[in-house]
Structures are given as C-alpha cells and as structure tokens.
Amino acid sequence: MGTITERRLKDGSIVYTAQVRIMRDGRKASASSSFERRSAAEAWLRRKEAELKKPGGFEKMERHRTGGATLAEAIDTYVRTSTKKIGNTKAQVLRTIKSFDIASLPCAAVTSQKLVEFAQELFDGGRQPQTIGNYLSHLSAIFAIAEPAWKIPLDPAEMRAATTVCKNLGLIGKSKKRDRRPTRAEMNKLMAHFEDRWRKGRSLPMHKVCAFAIFSTRRQEEIVSITWADLEAGRVLVRDMKHPGEKEGNDIWVDLPPEAERIVKTMPAESSRIFPYSTDAVSTAFTRACKLLGIEDLHFHDLRHEGVSRLFEMGKTIPQAASVSGHRSWPSLQRYSHLRATGDKWAGWEWLDKIDPQTPS
Q1: pLDDT in tens, 306-316
Q2: Taking the model in full, what pTM does it have?
Q3: The CATH number of the domain covering residues in 184-355
Q4: DSSP 70
C-alpha cells in the first residue's frame, strides 16, 4: 500500500518520497510527501497507513487530494508542478518547513496566527529575523497561487497579515551586511582539520573547497555546480549565477585567479563536476568543524567576502574585482571601497603549496 522512492537532486543530495495509494469502490485516494531522511519518510508512511485503518480514514485521505491538503502537500505540489527553476536555497527552505508542525495542518487551518506562531518558533530556535523573513517569503509564493492553481485553500491575506505582525514584533527584518572575515590562523586550523579527515577517508576534501572559495570568490552552490566543460584557461562559466530578480539564464564567464586554477588541477576528473558534492555536505562539514575548533560566527559564505576583500587589498579596481566576483552592479561593490591596497593577505600561504606541491608559488 505504501512505497518509498529515492530521487537524487542536481546538487547530489537525495530526497525520499513516501506515497500511499488505495482503491475502494472504484474511488482512489492517495497522499505523498518528500523528506531528506529515509527514517522520516518511513515514519510518515506508518502514520498514514495507521490513519487509513481508522474509521473515515479513506474519506479523509480522499479529501486531502483537493482542498483538504496539508501545507506539506501544498509545498510538494508547488515543487512538482513549477516550470520555473527553484533555487537551491528556496528548495532547502521548503524542505525544512515540512519538518515543522505547521506543515501537518490542513491548508484551511494555516491562519495568520499559526504563521506568526511558526515565525516565533523559528526565532526561539535561534534563526535570525532576516532568515525568518526568507522562510515566510518563500511560503508566500505558494499562498499566492494555491487557490487559483490547485483549489487548495491557502489565503494570501493570511500571509500578508502574518508578515505585518511579524515585522511589528521584530520577528522578521532586513539582512544585515556581514563583515566577518577569517584570519589566517583560523583558516590554518580548519585546513589542518579538513586535510586530516580527508586523508583518513572520513570527509570530502574540504580544505580544497575552502581554499577555492577564497581565491575564486565563488558561492557555495556555484562551487559544487561547476563542470569541467565550464572551465577554460583563466576563466570559468558560472551557470545560473545568483540574481535577485532572476533564478535561471544567468550564465556568466568570470576570471579564475591562478591560485584557484592550481586547486582545480589537483581534483580528479572522476565526475562531470569539478567538486562533485552537495551544498548540504559542504555546509554541514564547515559548520561542524568551526564548532569543534571553537571558531565562532564564521559562515562558509564569509570565504567569498574574504576573497572579494582580498582583491581590493591587492589594489584591484571595481571593474577588475567584478570580473572575478561576477557582480554585475558595480554599486554593490561599494561596500569594499574603504579597503586600501595593503597587499595580499594570502601571499605565501603554506596551504596552497600543500594542496598543490607541484606548481611553484
């Protein structure tokens, strides 16, 4: 009656889709939901099968195919039917929302009060106001089309009311510019930790990924997406580069500094991708290492900030820095204008030679 299927996403991660189907008197009822862990899919499947055995269970599941669908099922419908590419960050947020209690509510019961309670739960769990704002923003895209597209009763007015309340309570807010940069000492600790784990076969080569992030200024999702076919001498094609108004079609050639090229040459061509790992794997490894080593408030994205800062400290102009970072709006690089040409902080970094001992510095 119930099945679980595995599906590998473009970023290398695996999604487990649990599905229950049943026929009765010529009528069909079904329900499905996707999870990041197989154990969660199995638990959902057991719960649904138990519900079916109860009086009225079949009728309840039959209603869920239409207006009685849960928020989790509405999310699955949105992901499954969207013809536009859903970005990695948005997909991850939607999967995370499904792990909260609000996702099990019938859509008609997802009121502004429940949304505010969900935002408060995120805040109490340590998430920042800008992050909570992103969660509600991604959900609002589903609220906007659920009723006219699928007759699923998600009311956009409830989302608008919840957003207003959350702003007034300070639960959501604009993202603050981060200025956190890693020191060489911090990076040395991380590199030693990552190399040791990699040589023992316990982890992906995070020391190479981190060094590449600094020297190339590439974002995490861009790093794991670059293919060998995207590589040319001195430059690389970054596909679907992050853009606030567009999610796809932003393929841009950017310069690849020689230090980044050295790191690429050490990677085995065993996959179509140069760094064939998932964003989740990279993020988890980095976060765990920082916690283990006592490195506070350092995010993987801070490595890109470090890389762009390095370019300006090396005396690069805004156009020269943009040719590497891929920024298409030069005013967005004005935040770095205060940096003076003090030299290359990473000149002579021993870890570059450890990664690639064959190429002289």
Answers
A1: 999 999 999 99
A2: 0.60
A3: 1.10.443.10
A4: B
